Fold this protein.
Amino acid sequence: MDYFAFQWHITDECDQRCKHCYIFSAPNRPKMVEMSWKRLVAVLANVEQMCQRMKRLPYLYITGGDPILHSRFWDFLELVHEHKIPFTIMGNPFHLTDEVCRRLKALGCRKYQLSIDGMRDTHDSFRKPGSFDCTLEAIGTLHRANLHCAVMTTVSGVNINEIPDIIDLVVERKVDVFAFGRYCPTSRDKAAPDRGWHIAPDDYRKLLERCWEKYEKYKDSNTIFNLKDHLWTLFLYEKGLFKIPDGLAEDTIYGGCNCANCHFTITADGRLMACRRFDSYVGTVDEDLHEVFHGYRMDQYRQHEQLEKCARCELLRFCRGCPAVAFGYSGSFFAPDPQCWKYVN
């Protein structure tokens, strides 16, 4: 049975104010929000009911802010454990003691995801002084508790040249999973090339080539390299390492962007989003999640034939780049991916 993923922001509280964070870039968030205990319980029941109807298994990506700062964080994990729902924590390194990590392991945490957004100086400039070294210490703490550790990097023009060095670092530290995704502009100002965040399409392809060489070098290491960005599909297709299978239905999506496919984002104030990376409100957690998922608000993100560039590409059913990044640059979900280098007639 397949999983249905929920990225659940249980609180906005956080020890950092990262420059690329979409929560703290929102214009109308005067105070940090924490989802109430009553609502947490109700939403979890709603999640289970939806998945039962869809014959899927729920998988929770519990995050924030930093989820451990929720006033009832441990009560919530006890509840999730009691319902035998698998989960990953996506948070900060600052509160990960040996005792905390052992408790996470005992409650069924499958994986803890940390962020490294550059080498020391770059990372700390994105987040806060000392964050880089604290993250490296947390990797060791997670390993001592036999917890899987994932590292995620947000790539932009600011740190693009440091990604290969990060790969060396995570392999050296025996991180279990490494992946990177592209920065999604939170304003047109940050999307402008002269602001330093933008990556030109050819430069992004060169980055994938450099990373692929590293991945091949380290293929027998302890680290799994998750090809999270859908433009990896285009890269591997051009290298002859991905082939479109014969005999597939022409109207079925087989890979690529999961927006409106097998994912929901739940915000701390109870909104449902098709994707957490852009303003994609589709309802609230007080509604029937099954009805929202199959409703007209979510369906607008399934109009793949309206994708201005991807609809004319043979990889439509397998890639579609990142429409959220396209939205960040243009304000349109259907605009071309700004880092896609493929020419399409």
User: Anything to note?
Assistant: The longest helix spans residues 37-54. The two ends are 39 Å apart (CA to CA).
